[in-house]
Amino acid sequence: MIHPSSIIAPGAEIAENVEIGPLCYVGPHVKIGPNCKLISHCNIDGYTTIGSNNVFHPFSAIGQPAQDHGVVPGSISYVEIGNDNIFRENTTVHSGTKPDTVTKIGNHCMFMAGSHVAHNCKVGNNVIIVNASVLGGYAEVADNALISGLCAVHQFCRVGRFAMISGVSAMSKDVPPFMTAEGRNGGVKMVNLVGLKRAGFSDETIRVIRNIHKVFYRSELSPTNALKKIKEEFPQIPEVIEFIEFCESSTKGVLAAKVDGHRG
After folding, report:
1. Which of 34, 39, 79, 81 is CA-nearest to residue 56?
2. How many Å apart are CA 5 and CA 22, to the nearest integer?
3. CA dist., res. 32 & res. 13, Å (int)
4. CA Rg value for the chain
5. Tell me: the pLDDT tens digits for 110-164?
6. Ordered structural domains, the chain, with CATH
């Protein structure tokens, strides 16, 4: 199931039922799990470990060194990819910058054409990154987040669980879980209602999340006072605790600008 025009370097570990199409290259330290498919013209290199049932479309490039002047020549860093991910055309995923660091991707993600995952990023499960969107180094994207097309997430920034970033946006602050953000740090516009409903969140939980949004983004309270109010007055269900802990652990600052004349 390996096309004769492809090059598999000695030392590469290829599991059973892996299909490698024409003109692909697999480096000597790559490990590819069962039932993966490299359609054609794929380059997988570096110390890259790939789980099962992943599909790599033409010209995807996985495991190349970081685009960072801090890379130590000859050092070893890693890419770890889980199961059931789709990497569309021209997707790039780079290895860690510092020795023994890792860029990590979970399961059931889709990386659309031209998307980029930089060095040392952490991407959770069921994440969708749409065409030509990029994650800067050390960015973190939690489970079920959606990053629309032509977006940029700045280095070290975090995108929370079930958060959504609208198209042609750029974020240099953290986007809290369950919220929809847009613009160039333009602010949180609304709760990601569509995503929450599709995921089966209960009406009661969605109501609480909408009230979080009202307090944190529409009440004119400072972020500190808004969080205090949420702690004291809201039922401490897992989603409330998750929102509070996300905001309190932020090092880049949580997105909290004005949107449409309101505090965002």
Report:
1. 39
2. 5
3. 6
4. 20
5. 999 999 999 999 999 999 999 999 999 999 999 999 999 999 999 999 999 999 9
6. 7-138 (2.160.10.10), 196-263 (1.20.1180.10)
